[in-house]
Specification:
The chain is mostly helical. Helix content is 74%, strand content 0%.
Length: 342
Amino acid sequence: MNISRKRLSGAVEENIISSEQANALFEYFQAKSQDVPRFTFTHVLYYLGGLIAIGAMTLFMNLGWESFGGAGVVSISLLYAAIGLKITNTLSAKSLNIPAGICATFVVCLTPLAIYGLQQWLGVWPDDTVYREYHRYIKWHWLYMEFGTLVVGVAIAWKYKYPFLIMPIAVTLWYMSMDITAMISGGDNTWALRKLVSLYSGLLMIGLAFWVDVRSRRKVDYAFWIYIFGVMAFWGGLSAQNSDSELSKFLYFCINLAMIGVGVLLIRRVFVVFGAMGSCGYLAHLASDVFKDSWLFPITLTAIGLGIVYLGILWQKHEKAITEKSRQMLPAPLRELLEENA
């Protein structure tokens, strides 16, 4: 729930709290939420600047850096990392946790470049690919860069404990699943295989995110980025599957509905967004293919929609009783997680 000054003023008008209590509560919530990412101008500047800096050393890296040679790339990467860690420590000492976390993440994102430069320097780079292709193509020899990034990422995340540091770790796990598949398959990495790997690696990442979510339920949100990339990988792999069976398409619809339910239960919007897109895609398939010329389909769909609205009304009326009874049947850690997110 968004606690705003307007809401607190309303409580004052209803004589629930005094004006002094409202001001004290507002200052308390402001202090508690200053390190929580929000859509404010300050936070937009933080993340925009950070992502530009990270993108400059990753996605937008050009061939000009190849002219420095392996030793030059390693040296510049280490210099950048030292500057990044220095800024991180300075910001951390001033309790500016969001920009400190972004700077620490910048250091982690330098790791693949440094390892690439080291391999070039030692003359062990296996082919003529260049660093800028790391984020575009699937290659087995990216694994050295990925393992190194995981080690550095986990070490820095362990030291600084900023949630944004989980982002490069989650991305690397996603990349690694594809590159390991390329290595196991001997380079025969077909599109069908990629879809299956994306599906199952996404499931594993969602499981990991849930485990992290339960373990860190009383701390900051470390599971956010793992959920993001896990759901993206799972839903992308699931949606890319080919099937001529209406039963399998209906099963896909049910899985997307289940994703919406999980998203509501865990208060994770990423499940709801992707589940809603998949559900709408299935309904579009019914309208354009299965019931293309049926006048009854829109009427039936309208009735189903209104029925769901009525179900929402019933749920709102009995939500407290149903929630309390159902949570009593859950394990204590999961029950605490749901109560924390409520």
